[in-house]
Amino acid sequence: MFRVFIQSVNITKQDGEQAMIAEAPVSVQDSGARPFTSRSVYEQDGVKAYMRPHALYIVLPNVSREDEYASLYSAFQRIYNAGYNDVDWTVDVSALNKIPLSLLSVLTSFRQELSEHGQRLVLAGARQEAFPRLFMPNTST
Predict the structure, then answer these.
(1) CA–CA distance, 124 with 141 (Å, rounded to integer)
(2) What's the CATH code of the domain at 69?
(3) Do residues 47 and 75 touch, judged by C-beta distance below 8 A?
């Protein structure tokens, strides 16, 4: 089991300009959690959402193209706008072979939105190799 807590992501562009893409922490847990005794509240573009007692469980499909990641943002927005902003979100990313910075930025944005309502966003099923190298510890000395 591992956990990653992202406080902020600073990227230096080729021209030396600094850019911050995340300001709020996103917690990642390798829990292998799966839906149980839940009701389906959303299913579109491969994204499935289940309502559990006091929590929303969102299962992401395996996506690889940038336009597919954009559809994930749209799905999160539709779920959020449907009124599911008053419960914790668990986002199952186990089907993803990679988690690009753009998706981490989207997740961080929704985590911030949820935290304003006293809720949290947790990633489940994440594999260490799915994260960009930027988040991997440097083991060379």
Answers:
(1) 31
(2) 3.30.750.24
(3) yes
The CA distance from 69 to 103, in Å, is 7
**Nearby residues of 7 by Cβ (< 8 Å), 6 or more positions away:** 25
113 in any annotated domain? yes
Residue 7 lies in a domain: no
DSSP for 76-108, please give it: HHHHHHTTTTSSEEEEE-TT-S---HHHHHHHH
Three state DSSP letters for 25-82: CCEEECCCCCCCCCEEEEEECCEEEEEECCEEEEECCCCCCHHHHHHHHHHHHHHHHC
Number of domains in the chain: 1
- The sign of the torsion formed by the CA atoms of 75, 77, 78, 82 equals positive
Residue at 6 is within a domain: no
Residue type, 29: Q
Structure confidence at residue 99 (pLDDT)? 84
Counting every residue, how long is the chain? 141
Q: For residue 96, what are its two tokens? A: 């993803």
Q: Which regions in the chain score pLDDT beneath 70? A: 1-37, 133-141
